[in-house]
Amino acid sequence: MNDLYPKIVTLLPAATEIVCALGLEANLVGRSHECDFPESVKQLPVCSDANFPDTLSSGEIDIKVKEILADALSVYTVNREQIKQLAPDVVITQAQCEVCALSLKEVEEALDDYLDKPVSIVSLQPNSLDDIFNDIGTIANALNVTGAGVVLLVDLNERVDIIRHKLKYSDNKPTVACVEWLEPLMISGNWVPELVSIAGGTPILAEAGKHSPYVNWNDISVQDPDILIIMPCGFPIERTLKEIHLLLQLPGFGELKAVKNNRVYIADGNQYFNRPGPRIVDSIEILAEIIHPKQFIFGYEGNGWIKFAV
Questions:
Q1: For residues 219 and 213, what is the distance between their CA atoms, to the nearest angstrom?
Q2: Are 188 and 180 in contact (CB under 8 A)?
Q3: Which DSSP string corresponds to 263-290?
Q4: Rounded Cα–Cα distance for residues 253 and 270 (Å)
Q5: 3-class secondary structure per residue, 125-160
Q6: Which of 195, 175, 74, 181 is CA-nearest to residue 127?
Q7: Which of 64, 31, 24 lies closest to 48 in space, CA to CA?
Q8: Which among 118, 119, 176, 208 could bridge 201 via Cys, Cβ 3.0 to 4.6 Å?
Q9: How would you write the pLDDT of the chain (310 residues) with one tens digit per residue?
């Protein structure tokens, strides 16, 4: 640990990735139960837990989360004793989605007057790509590594600009439906429509900067997208494959343009699209590979995404 910088506890995966990308992994003393990248952070003490088992299906998770929230309870639990023992100077959480990770309110209530010393709570609330980049700068400033934040953001913006420049004069913008949840059906909102646009596609059924909407299957079939990308929140590719039957059994699925043209894909929503940190640019690169395969090969196929043969 570098004593020049604060001791840090991160309570969401994106924040852990940001701290590590800023060069302060050595100052991380605790993490959330979901933080798993880089691999080395898995050895850190876990400071939170989910109030439902990890083995539930999409439909069961949806029901359980709604039951918990309806009872005015939290989806997650803060391990106050663990955090107290770790004695952090900074705790990073979020206020974007109470289903995705511990919220600011929950962390403040759990730690208020409980720790033995003052602690700074940094809360992230991204809804767009600019918000994500601004959050990186906010964390860099809070951790006294403003310069490292500038360097990281320059690199991330350069990678985005490469894609934008290559597609600047392209008129081919296929329609893209990004499925964020399988049962009930949801379409990816927040920053994902913007990422699709940057990668040269036309997002459908969700609005950039707004939360992911529930949709009916008929909404998707009527739109008949050119490309269908399945990226359930928190699911790796392997877990999505176990529930892909939920889509395959829907009436008229095989008649979709995307299915007929072999343009159905499964992406790793857990590691990429649902984490508003540095790898959100990886997510744009994944989308560029999928949407415009003749123009982009970044090397994510087989790991970040696969083509699904229906």
A1: 11
A2: yes
A3: -EEEE-IIIIIT--STTHHHHHHHHHHH
A4: 25
A5: CCCCHHHHHHHHHHHHHHCCCHHHHHHHHHHHHHHH
A6: 195
A7: 31
A8: 176
A9: 767 789 999 999 999 999 999 999 999 999 999 999 999 999 999 998 877 777 888 888 778 777 766 654 466 788 888 988 999 999 998 776 555 555 567 677 767 776 777 888 898 889 999 999 999 999 999 999 999 999 999 999 999 999 999 999 888 999 999 999 999 999 999 999 999 999 999 999 999 999 899 999 999 999 999 999 999 998 999 999 999 999 999 999 999 999 999 999 999 999 999 999 999 999 999 999 999 999 999 999 999 999 998 7
- Cα separations in angstroms, 202 against 161, 176, 287, 293, 300: 18, 6, 12, 16, 21
Place of tokens 């196929």: 301
Q: Which domains does the chain have, with CATH numbers?
A: 8-125 (3.40.50.1980), 170-307 (3.40.50.1980)
Contacts of 10 (CB under 8 A, 6+ apart): 16, 19, 28, 30, 31, 32, 35, 91, 92
Query: Quick one: which H or E segment has residue 61?
Result: helix 58-70
* Closest to 89 (Cα-Cα) out of 118, 55, 125: 118
What separation, in Å, do the N-terminal and C-terminal C-alpha atoms of the chain show? 50
Q: Length of the chain in residues, anyone?
A: 310
